[in-house]
Amino acid sequence: MTRVLPAAPRGRERWRRDAWQRVIATLDPETDYEIISAVDTRFEFPWDIQQALSFALFRTFAVPSIGVLLHETQEFTERTQKRHDDTVLVLDAIVEDGMESSPGRAAVRRMNQMHGAYAISNDDLRYVLATFVVTPVRWLADYGWRPLGPAEVDAATRSYQRMGELMGIKDIPASYAEFETLLDAYERTHFAYDDRSREVADATLALLCSYYPRLLRPAVEVFSRSVMDPHVRDAFGYATPPRAVVAVSRGLLRLRGRALRLAPPRVAPSRPEDRGAIRTYLPGGYRIEDLGTHV
Known about the structure:
Oligomer: single chain
Distance between the termini: 30 Å
Radius of gyration: 19 Å
Helix content: 55-70%
């Protein structure tokens, strides 16, 4: 069954910055977790969540068992754009229709087929899941026009717990706090430099910079390194930008967040294809079953 999103704010509500927060307040994160998460992804924070998830995926490469495997498949070094687009579209199908819908189940099945072709440990899968739970929460606390509220954090946590269940991941953390603990501990013990992981990171960073005009790409690359957590930079052997550059880069993101507090709520859903994030496929020009790797 396809999930139905709440109606967009109308009338006077159309101009209230907290309009979607008022909608979320009527929902139960224990049962409506996918609806709440979809509201945040489609309306409240579409750009921020996309950036946060890009950095979430990026940091997983610093775990050698993950980065080296991706290097061996050549998916993130030879077909970087397609692999990015496939990942975004598979996850977006879940956001659009919900995990319990036919498209959502097809997306999860495609994800499981891709992962099942390789020897990926349960610990690595749990860590990747944790990055997708924790990174957006922390990004929005630092740079969003507002941080996520408790119901939104609970909904995001429950959404990824359910995804983890459908992926067959064992020993999934029972709360957001446990996901945070897992992520931080795993990075302390598993982050390490590897030339092959660095190649995957370089290719992905170049792709992220390619969304900007050519003349701006060197600045975007420095900006991206400035926004990375220091231990992520260190794991890839990236140089730390000057302190002033880091401060300005992070300050600009915070300034953007403050400026957005003055904007009216979004009433039209924002999708990756609408934002130009997808380049491999024409809008609607793909089947979920055909996305990703086929080994």
